[in-house]
Structures are given as structure tokens and as C-alpha cells.
Specification:
Elements lengths: L28 H24 L3 H10 L18 E4 L17 E5 L1 H9 L4 H12 L2 H6 L22
Antiparallel strand pairs: 1-2
Length: about 160
């Protein structure tokens, strides 16, 4: 491998003329970005294989299955930051809960939704209570404001919030 630094006027990869600010580098800006992206992809592929036991093809297939979006918010696309592999920490296969296996992989999430799942401690009842809270706010019920509940929810006149565990 050649040195990172060079005073050559042309890029060591593509042969195009480098800009004056890049003369002390071996590669032009375009080739540097491409090399950094390739390194990042290789590290990601290695990471998902070691930590979750899935292949890069599995990751791509899952991303395509989810239409390229976070499985929860459906907003994040992973363009600026890759979607995280979400896995069940209570998997019974017998490995470190920090790591996963193909049996415990659930889907791809943006970092916000992935953290949220962790804060909920993987308890779907918390999500149910949160959805109910958003549809039927306690203060609005306390005031008797039925307009806070949409007609499509069918929860008008429901009893006060009872938190189940």
C-alpha cells in the first residue's frame, strides 16, 4: 500500500487531476469519500455478522421488506445513519443479551425508535398505554372534553385511565 501523502498532481486511484488543496494527499476528494464509504460498509457488514449472526444480504433483504424505512416510525430511511438491527434481549438461545442471533432479530429501527424500545424495556403494554394516552389524554377526560377523543377511536365516554401492569 502506498503512502497516504503524496505530492503528485494526479489522484492515485482515478488518475484525475487533484485540486490544489489535495496535492498533499494520495487520493482526490471523490476517491477519498468512496474509500471511506467502502471502509464503513465493510465494518458494518462485519459488525452485523458478529453481533447478530446475519449476512449483509439479510440486512438488505430486511431493509427492502420494510420499504427502506424504520419499522416503527416509518420516517427514517437510513440515508444519513444506518438503521439499527433490533433484537429481543430476552432471546432463549443462550447467548449474551447484548448480542443477538438470527432467531432474536426483530427488524430495523432508527436510533430514536431503537432507544425508545429500550426505554420501554421491550414491554408492549407500555406502547399500548402510550397510544391510549395520546388518543385519550387524562386531563381532557378530567375536564369532560369529549372532543379530545376522535370519533374513529370509539373510546368516547370511557372510564378514567387505569394503568394495568
Amino acid at each position: 500500500m502506498s503512502s497516504r501523502y503524496s505530492n503528485e498532481p494526479n489522484c492515485g486511484e482515478c488518475g484525475r487531476k487533484k485540486s490544489p488543496s489535495q496535492l498533499n494527499r494520495r487520493l482526490c476528494t471523490t476517491c477519498q469519500r468512496a474509500a471511506a464509504k467502502a471502509r464503513s460498509q465493510k465494518q458494518h457488514d462485519s459488525h452485523i455478522g458478529q453481533h447478530y449472526g446475519i449476512t449483509p444480504k439479510d440486512y438488505i433483504d430486511l431493509r427492502n421488506y420494510q420499504a427502506g424505512k424504520c419499522a416503527i416510525c416509518c420516517r427514517a430511511t437510513g440515508r444519513s445513519k444506518r438503521l439499527a438491527v433490533d433484537h429481543n434481549h430476552k432471546c432463549k438461545v443462550g447467548h449474551d443479551p447484548k448480542y443477538g442471533c438470527p432467531e432474536c432479530v426483530r427488524g430495523l429501527l432508527c436510533s430514536t425508535c431503537n432507544k425508545f424500545i429500550g426505554w420501554m424495556r421491550d414491554d408492549p403494554r407500555v406502547g399500548d398505554r402510550m397510544a391510549r394516552y395520546l388518543r385519550d389524554p387524562p386531563f381532557q377526560r378530567l375536564r369532560g372534553d369529549e372532543s379530545a377523543v376522535s370519533a374513529s377511536d370509539g373510546e368516547a365516554g370511557r372510564s378514567p385511565l387505569r394503568v394495568s401492569v
